[in-house]
Amino acid sequence: MIDIAFVKPALPRHGALVLPIGEGAEALAGLAQAIDAATGGAVQRALTAAGFKGRKGQSCTVWGPALTDGASGPSRIVAIGLGKEITPEAAEAAGGALYALVQAEREAVVAAEALPAPVAAALAMGLLLRSYRFDRYRTTEKEEDKPKLERLSVATDAATAAKTAWAPLRAIADGVFITRDLVSEPPNVLNPPEMAERCRALESLGLTVEIMGPKEMKKLGMGALLGVAMGSAQEPRMVVLQWNGASRGKKAGQKPVAFIGKGVTFDTGGISIKPAAGMEDMKWDMAGAGTVIGLMAALAGRKAKVDAVGLVGLVENMPGSAAQRPGDVVTTASGQTVEVINTDAEGRLVLADVIHYCQTRFAPRFMVDLATLTGAIIVALGHEHAGLFSNDDELAGRIMAAGKAVGEACWRMPLGEAYDKQIKSEIADMKNVGGRPGGSISAAQFIQRFVDTKAGPMPWAHLDIAGTAWSSKDLPTSPKGATAFGLRLLDRLVAEHYEG
Amino acid sequence: MLTVKLRRAPREDARAPLALPLPDAAAVPSALRAAAEAAGFTGAAGQAVMLPERGLMLLGTGAARRSLDWEEAGGTAAAAIGEARRFAIDARGLAPGAAASLAAGACLRAWRFSRYRSEPAPGPRRLDLLVDDPEAVAPHWSRAAAGVRGCLLARDLAMEPANTLTTRAFAARLEALAEHGIAVDVLGRKRLAREGLGGLLAVGGGSETPPRLAVLRWRGSVAAAPVVFVGKGICFDTGGISIKGAAGMEAMKADMAGAAACAGAMLALALRRSPAPAIAVLALAENAVGERSYRPGDVLRMGSGRTVEVVDTDAEGRLVLADALHYARQFRPQAVLDLATLTGSIVTALGSHRAGLFGTDAGLLAQAAAAGEAVGEPLWPMPIGERHREDLNSAIADLKQCTTGRLQPDACHAAAFLREFAGPAPWAHLDIAGVDDRAEAAPLGPPGPSGFGARLLDALVSMYFEH
Description:
The complex is a heterodimer. By secondary structure, chain A is of the alpha/beta class. Chain A has 15 helices and 19 strands. Chain A folds into two domains: 3-157, Leucine Aminopeptidase, subunit E, domain 1 (3-Layer(aba) Sandwich), CATH 3.40.220; 171-497, Aminopeptidase (3-Layer(aba) Sandwich), CATH 3.40.630.10. Chain B folds into two domains: 3-135, Leucine Aminopeptidase, subunit E, domain 1 (3-Layer(aba) Sandwich); 148-464, Aminopeptidase (3-Layer(aba) Sandwich). Chain B is 34% helix and 20% strand. Chain B has 14 helices and 19 strands. In chain B, the strands form four sheets. An eight-stranded mixed beta sheet of chain B has the order 7-8-10-9-13-17-14-15, sandwiched between helices. In chain B, strands 1-6-5-2-4-3 form a six-stranded mixed beta sheet, with helices on one face. Chain B starts with a strand and ends with a helix. Chain B: It comes from Belnapia rosea.
């Protein structure tokens, strides 16, 4: 991971010098002005010649500028546009775009003297997030093809303020990288027991980690989750991660906020097997769980003043000799029975048991579940929005707002009795699919049946991230591949409304 | 439609069963208490208990408040009445609006389409609505009846098979609306060519029956910019060269349900003499497989001058709508709403309980959603994102018509496409592919075409454009 430092402004003698410039900025100032003077006005001439106006998305590189005094200077100068409104969001996007322009240098210095601390920190965040790379399994990559950037120094007069703004972002970036690593791992490596072990490693952050195997889950009556796991040689796991950032040192704990993730480490579809084309994508059918794990690491890493629990149900959905069949009826931990019509609608079976367990054990303030649940949500919304389903308008509103603020947009989708009827079964309390029409909605209705509101309100939201957990193209702050969509959103949700 | 008579009392000779609307068990007349109890009648909405030996029906209304509640109660009565040719609803003691709504609901539920049956389907023909003061109820009823007739026209049109409701026949049916004071102008091939409506001409090119653009105008009585309805009227959709699978293709006779709903709304406005000026622009074509069919890869020049790369000839609705939306701009509308059975994607997204609502103007979207709630035709807002538009970038033309591959947000893509052709006026697009047909009976209609949209547009005009 690139080292981010906040330093006193000084012209670098090697590497890249980055000049973030807003649209309509009058004249170069600070380090920008200094380097322009040192190069005899070459920087200003280059910007003028290139038509650089500081617009969003604009950049201009000056290669190997000669200093008039003959001293050694930066090997490239990169001006990057911040647009008219210099906001943290704009700076983050600019930082993301900047990465490609400086990654061939070992070091880069950003002339951020004129930027407010949160903007400077956001620029570093954007670059860091965009620099993510999963190269664990590359053994023959040539040295010159690898990115070289090791250190980004943000030159600012307000280093203390910038460091304060940076600290939580760094913890969030760590969480994002944990999630992206988990989601990127191949399914022969990252099976349920391995994924649970990786959770164990997060104890060093101060998280409490409990791992349950088939025996414990059987005792809890988790027939739905266990049914999904039957076709695989890999044992299922449920992991409970707890962060007690609010009640630490106090006697009376408060109700935690709760996050639940679907962790199907590989989804063949089971007996209702998927077609071969594109099946390799199903390694990321654990992205909901991966995101919850990264989120818990981020909350612990930035010492969030909140009590939070993260629960993930980890299974592999395989068509083995003991696999469950279409037509099987399973009994969930809640006692409700489910007719399994399609073994490829397995995510909701896993979530049903974990959500019930979560509510029973923790009585949380709210529950948010994340799952790469349905192809239907991609047909509905595409890849820009996750589908948001909720029984609580306040919680839904907060999630929408948090998502907008961090660039992880959600779109509210409907729930209702008419949709709930689609999962009526002839033999059990419900069936696990409701047909193609409104496929994401009937899936959400299924999950909602395991949110118990008999004894009082239980705010719940379900994020269907099937269209957003993985990107087939580069995004401003996420190279193509695992995005960790939802992590920053939920971190923001906690920070805005549930801390302190 | 049921013949509805407003009467103060039942006919003397009446053997017609009489429905008694009751909000709860306590309201049941004492003579009927025992029967009501035995039948488990609680007065809840949706309940109807026939007492054949007395010629009575206990009709649950619950705590009906909205006119939609009364309509659904009326529909429940019509459904429960069975094969009786005539029945009555006792609306005495109810507000005139509630009485009218009971009758409206009964008419919507009792609709049948018997044209192609040697013997008409059994069921009620006549309804006696018993009211305290027929003169007080009459204006409410004529207003409600207008909306019902609009809806039923839309259903009749959607139900017609494609060998009878050709583009020409559809246009002739629309021309017949002139008797209600609607001015109808039908553009044939020559005028379409003069207008340069290359999308509509290309889609209609493969068929023996030619494409048409029908423009219906209701002048209204106030000097205001018109509300414009734009409808997709694909009289049959084979998919064209990108031909559809055979299973279920017969349903494609109803791929003109959007245009039918717009026509129904125009009829409703005319029948109730709405003061608001309104125009419907309906694009009629058959998407056939023929020697002159348009092909995937073709580039079309649309009415607006934009060029479009055809990727899938089965995404034809957006092409004809684009030209109709463009044509509508000349009327300088204060709002434009298009209705179309446009995508399978919206069915996957929202199922058959809500139509997809897209658009550019938050105010109009909120109004359309409110009108839909009022008449039991609910909508749900859907996004048009930047990425949806980017996905339509073409290597050869200004844009392509859709994308290919699995799991595409085609409803959003279609809306992003249409946005390129909608003018500056507030615009809303209703993708009604999931709701234009009912698989099961509902309080306000039997299985079959729902007429979705006609009552919604009528309500929208009445709620927001008549002041």
